[in-house]
């Protein structure tokens, strides 16, 4: 992921931490929805303090960082929309 997107994600997380009344699910939802709106659909987000992952993501669209007592994984997938 490029530095501007990574910095944007880290800033969003830090703003939530600074408010002192956050929860991890809210942070994941905020990141996913903000990145979908700002950079297009297909973003996925995992926030927690104990997890493993094995994912497929688009090139240059993966970010992992730790802050406070939790870690964040943010990545973009290639969505295929099926209309039934």
TrEMBL record:
Predominant location category: cytoplasm
Protein name: Dynein light chain
Source organism of the structure: Wuchereria bancrofti
Gene3D superfamilies, alphabetized: Protein Inhibitor Of Neuronal Nitric Oxide Synthase
Record's subcellular location: Cytoplasm, Cytoskeleton
CDD domains reported for this sequence: DLC-like_DYNLL1-like (cd21450)
Gene Ontology terms describing biological process: microtubule-based process
Keywords: Cytoplasm, Cytoskeleton, Dynein, Microtubule, Motor protein
Pfam families cross-referenced by the UniProt entry: Dynein_light (PF01221)
Record-stated family: Belongs to the dynein light chain family.
GO MF assignments: dynein intermediate chain binding
GO cellular-component term (any): cytoplasmic dynein complex
SMART domains: Dynein_light
